[in-house]
Write a structure and sequence with these properties.
Helix content is about 20%, strand content about 30%. The protein is of the alpha+beta class. A 4-stranded antiparallel beta sheet has the order 3-2-1-4. A hairpin with a 2-residue loop joins strand 1 (about 10-20) and strand 2 (about 25-30). It is globular, with a radius of gyration of 13 Å.
Length: about 80
């Protein structure tokens, strides 16, 4: 199931990355608000994360971000699998 089709999910917002420069990532919401994305220590030191973030910014793709903590979601737009 996709996150944006589940009515119980209210703490997720769609953003696109507008600035990516070490050590900061700036995102813009659909409403036009800007936020600094909170990055983990693993993300800060991961070259693949930075390459991916620059690609997302360049291509203006929308990604999910938690509203409260302003962190990107690792599972993208998919709900975690329940067994």
């Amino acid at each position: 199931m996709l996150l944006d089709t589940d009515p119980k999910i209210k703490n997720i917002t769609a953003v696109h990355l507008v600035k990516v420069f070490y050590p900061m990532v700036i995102a813009q919401t659909e409403d036009g608000d800007y936020f600094q994305v909170k990055l983990s220590n693993d993300q800060l030191s991961d070259p693949l994360f930075w390459d991916t973030a620059r690609d997302l910014c360049r291509n203006q793709l929308w990604v999910p971000m938690g509203r409260k903590f302003h962190q990107l979601l690792s599972n993208d737009w998919l709900m975690p699998a329940t067994n």
